[in-house]
Write a structure and sequence with these properties.
five-stranded mixed β-sheet, two-stranded antiparallel sheet, alpha+beta, Beta Polymerase, domain 2, 19 helices, 7 strands, globular
C-alpha cells in the first residue's frame, strides 16, 4: 500500500500521545488536504495507531474538516481497541493472580505492559496477545498454573521440546467466545542469537507494579528501551539498510518493510514518560555489553527520523547503528525505491512472495539473516569477536551448524510422527 507524502505525515503526526502546539496547527492543515481517508485508516489500523488517530482528530477537527463517515470509522477503531484491551487486561489480571498464588514471578512484556501503564488511555495501544516472562526454572510450574486457569498449548505448536530447546516462548490459548493468546517466555533472545542479555540482572532490576489489580513486574526503564529497540530491529529487519539515507519515513511505512509504526510509538512514549530520569549512558553500556549496539542504535536512529524523539547524552553517536550486511543493504535499496525496471521487478517479486503469506515469509527471511549473522558474527553483534582467532571462529560456526542440523532433524521428526499419527487415526501434534 503506497501512501502519499501527506498521508505519511498525518500518520506520523498522530503516532504519539502529546502533540506540540505547532504540530496541532500542522495537523489541522493536513486534515483539509486531499488524503485518501479509507486508505489512511486501513494503514493506521495495520500500523496499530488508528485509536491514536481517532483520539487526536477528535480534538483537532472541530469544524468538520473530514467527512462524518470517516470520523465514525475512526471512532469504531477506538471503541474496538478499547473493548478488546479491557477484556485482555482483565484476562491478564486473572493469569497474574493464578501465577502469583502459585509462587511464580512474572514480568509483563510489550503491549500488555505498555497499554495500561505507559499510555494515558489503555485503548490507545492495541495488543492482540499477552507476553509473559518467567524464570527458566518456573516454566513447568507456570504451565500447570495456567492450565488451571484455562490455558492449553496452542493447536499449531509443533513441539514443546523443540521450543524449549531452541526458541524463547510457548504459545498458549484460552478458548472461548473471545479466545485469549498468551506467549510464555523464559528468555528474551534465543540460542541462535549472539546477543548475551543478562537475564538474572534484568530480573533483579525489574519493578513491582499492579496491572488490573494483580501483582506483576515490568522491565526497568533502561532495559525496556533496549528490549523494545531490539524487538523493533528484529521485525524491521531491513532498517539497517536505510538508516541515515533520508528515506527512513517512506521506508518505515511501506508495506514491504515489515515495520509497524506502533513499535516506534512505544519507544517514543517510554522515552517521553521517563524523560531526564532515563540513563542513556546505561542504555549504551548494556547495548554494547549484550552485543546489540547495532540493533539498538538503528532503532533509535529510525525513531528520531520518524518521530523526532529526543535521545540524550550522545547515545546515537555512541551506539553507531546502521551496520548492515551486503544482502540487507541490497534488498533495502531495492525495496525503498521504485521507478526503475530492476527495483520494480524486485518489489513485485517480494510482494508476490511475501504478502499472501506475510508472516511465514517474513519469519523465514529474518531467520536466514539472523542465522548468517549468528554463524559469522561481526564485532558489533558479538563484542568478544574482536579477540577470537581463526580456530574459535571456525569452532563457533561448526557449533552453530550442528545446532541447525539438530533443529532441522527435530522438525522433520515431528512432521513424520504427526503424519504417522494421522495415518493411524490418532491425530494431533507432537507435544514431546
Amino acid at each position: 500500500m503506497n501512501l502519499t507524502e501527506i498521508e505519511r505525515e498525518i500518520l506520523l503526526a498522530v503516532a504519539r500521545q502529546k502533540v506540540a502546539d505547532e504540530g496541532v496547527e500542522r495537523l489541522r492543515l493536513l486534515l483539509g488536504s486531499d488524503a485518501r481517508w479509507e486508505t489512511l485508516i486501513e494503514s493506521a489500523w495495520r500500523h496499530g495507531v488508528a485509536p491514536l488517530m481517532c483520539w487526536h482528530i477528535s480534538r483537532v477537527d472541530g469544524g468538520g474538516l473530514i467527512p462524518a463517515a470517516i470520523r465514525h470509522s475512526l471512532r469504531q477503531c477506538y471503541v474496538r481497541a478499547a473493548f478488546r484491551n479491557s477484556f485482555h487486561i482483565g484476562q491478564l489480571a486473572l493469569a497474574l493472580r493464578a501465577l502469583a498464588d502459585g509462587g511464580v514471578g512474572v514480568i509483563v512484556l510489550k503491549g500488555a505492559h505498555l497499554a495500561p501503564l505507559v499510555y494515558g488511555d489503555p485503548a490507545l495501544r492495541p495488543f492482540a496477545d499477552i507476553d509473559l516472562l518467567v524464570c527458566p526454572g518456573d516454566v513447568d510450574r507456570a504451565l500447570i498454573l495456567l492450565a488451571g486457569a484455562g490455558y492449553d498449548l496452542a493447536p499449531g505448536l509443533l513441539s514443546v521440546a523443540l521450543n524449549r530447546r531452541y526458541h524463547v516462548n510457548l504459545p498458549l490459548l484460552k478458548r472461548g467466545d473471545r479466545p485469549v493468546h498468551v506467549e510464555l517466555h523464559w528468555r528474551l533472545t534465543d540460542r541462535f542469537s549472539s546477543h548475551a542479555m543478562e537475564h538474572e540482572a534484568i530480573w533483579a532490576r525489574s519493578r513491582e507494579v499492579q496491572i488490573g489489580g494483580a501483582p506483576a513486574r515490568v522491565l526497568a526503564p533502561e532495559d525496556l528501551v533496549v528490549y523494545l529497540a531490539l524487538h523493533l530491529d528484529k521485525h524491521g529487519y531491513l532498517n539497517r539498510g536505510v538508516v541515515g539515507s533520508g528515506r527512513e519515513r517512506a521506508f518505515a511505512l511501506d508495506g514491504l518493510s515489515a515495520n509497524r509504526l506502533i513499535w516506534f510509538t512505544d519507544l517514543h512514549e517510554v522515552c517521553e514518560r521517563h524523560g531526564g530520569a532515563l540513563d542513556w549512558g546505561t542504555v549504551v553500556e548494556r547495548s554494547r555489553t549484550w552485543g546489540m549496539a547495532d540493533s539498538v542504535g538503528t532503532s533509535l536512529a529510525m525513531l528520531v527520523a520518524l518521530l523526532g524523539t529526543i535521545v540524550g547524552d550522545g547515545a546515537l553517536k555512541a551506539l553507531g547503528g546502521g551496520t548492515a550486511g551486503w544482502f540487507r543493504r541490497w534488498l533495502a535499496g531495492r525495496l525503498s525505491h521504485s521507478g526503475c525496471g530492476a527495483r520494480d521487478r524486485t518489489r513485485d517479486f517480494v510482494r508476490r512472495m511475501m504478502l499472501p503469506t506475510r508472516k511465514d515469509f517474513e519469519l523465514r527471511l529474518v531467520r536466514l539473516l539472523d542465522l548468517g549473522e549468528f554463524l559469522f558474527p561481526g564485532r558489533g553483534s558479538c563484542p568478544a569477536r574482536a579477540t577470537w582467532g581463526a580456530g574459535k571462529i571456525l569452532a563457533h560456526a561448526i557449533r552453530g551448524m550442528a545446532m541447525c542440523v539438530g533443529l532441522m532433524a527435530g522438525v522433520l521428526g515431528c512432521h513424520a510422527r504427526a503424519r504417522f499419527a494421522r495415518l493411524m487415526g490418532a491425530g494431533g501434534h507432537d507435544r514431546g
